[in-house]
């Protein structure tokens, strides 16, 4: 299936003016029962989903950072040593604003198409470099094209970037039961804080908003930290802040009865040197569906599946509810800090510029 974002390639994403560019067509298939669930890049999913839909699981996150991909003949250069006027390709306002703020001498231009198309445009000489999601390149097996993975201090990433999410109907307890074991705890905590941050700001593709989160063991507890930023389109104005919270635990003390028997079923894709030993959560999910096809036998276990949503994410039954609420609140608090420092005014200027460019185009 293709989406509006796949079909309209001659207009920059913010100018298309549709919040669900890469999800609307797929969600229609969900709502009319054509499919039972859809796998998305989480960063493409709005923080508020259509009524009746939910994110049933998020798999373990890949590297969420952005990657610099330089053209082969100038691969020894860096962003700071590229000649003035060098063209950097990206379709993201977030990347554009941060690049313009740090490297005003470079020319940032829109680039559309799938990864293969974008890399061909780079190789043809249309661009000096591209900024792309590291996770997308690694999933395609093209990590050798990466010149440098940009640290978060240089380029904050998009909300949810690097994570795959499974969207389904919120009343489909059979599918929710199947998905429950794959809902990765650490990833869930991080992306919930990020989505709550974005939802409170009211941002999306129409504003340069970036984040960085970390969840680490701290003594006998866990510390979740989140940094968020909002930029003007030229990158000259930015509003940023960092907050953190500490939890005594992030997993329920007793193993949830729907938890996988092996810890690796919700792990990220891992490929060995010979490419013949792949651990893939979607493949594991396919096995469960095939095994249970025609005899799902989910009546008893589905009683444990709740339909309470947090920024579109179904409640994760492996995480204490108070931890989920605190993760959501952490994102809200960070957004409110930025709002009190003028973030909404910065975002409004950008949105007005986009509207004016649409009128004049």
From TrEMBL:
Cytoplasm as UniProt keyword: no
Pfam family of the protein (one): Porphobil_deamC
EC number annotated for this UniProt entry: 2.5.1.61
GO cellular component term, pick one: cytoplasm
Superkingdom in the source lineage: Eukaryota
GO molecular function, one term: hydroxymethylbilane synthase activity
Cofactor(s) needed: dipyrromethane
Protein name: hydroxymethylbilane synthase
NCBIfam families: hemC
């Amino acid at each position: 299936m293709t989406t509006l974002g796949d079909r309209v390639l001659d207009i920059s994403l913010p100018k298309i003016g549709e919040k669900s560019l890469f999800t609307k067509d797929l969600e229609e298939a969900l709502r009319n029962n054509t499919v039972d669930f859809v796998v998305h890049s989480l960063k493409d999913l709005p923080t508020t989903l259509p009524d009746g839909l939910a994110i049933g699981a998020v798999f373990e996150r890949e590297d969420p950072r952005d990657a610099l991909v330089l053209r082969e003949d100038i691969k020894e250069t860096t962003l700071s040593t590229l000649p003035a006027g060098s063209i950097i390709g990206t379709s993201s306002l977030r990347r554009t604003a941060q690049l313009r703020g740090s490297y005003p001498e470079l020319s940032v231009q829109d680039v559309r198409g799938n990864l293969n198309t974008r890399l061909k445009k780079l190789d043809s000489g249309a661009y000096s470099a591209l900024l792309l999601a590291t996770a997308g390149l690694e999933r395609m097996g093209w990590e050798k094209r990466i010149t440098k993975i940009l640290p978060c201090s240089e380029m904050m990433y998009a909300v949810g970037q690097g994570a795959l999410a499974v969207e389904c109907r919120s009343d489909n307890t059979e599918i929710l039961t199947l998905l429950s074991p794959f809902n990765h705890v650490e990833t869930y905590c991080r992306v919930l804080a990020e989505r709550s941050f974005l939802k409170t700001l009211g941002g999306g593709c129409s504003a340069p908003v970036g984040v960085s989160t970390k969840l680490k063991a701290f003594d006998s507890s866990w510390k979740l930290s989140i940094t968020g930023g909002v930029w003007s389109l030229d990158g000259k104005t930015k509003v940023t802040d960092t907050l953190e919270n500490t939890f005594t635990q992030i997993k329920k003390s007793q193993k949830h009865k729907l938890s996988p028997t092996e810890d690796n079923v919700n792990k990220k894709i891992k490929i060995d040197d010979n490419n013949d030993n792949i651990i893939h959560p979607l493949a594991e999910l396919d096995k469960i569906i095939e095994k249970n096809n025609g005899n799902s036998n989910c009546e008893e276990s589905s009683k444990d599946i709740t339909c309470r949503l947090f920024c579109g994410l179904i409640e994760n039954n492996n995480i204490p509810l108070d931890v989920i609420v605190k993760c959501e609140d952490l994102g809200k608090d960070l957004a409110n800090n930025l709002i009190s420092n003028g973030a909404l005014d910065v975002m409004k200027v950008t949105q007005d510029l986009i509207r004016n460019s649409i009128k004049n185009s």
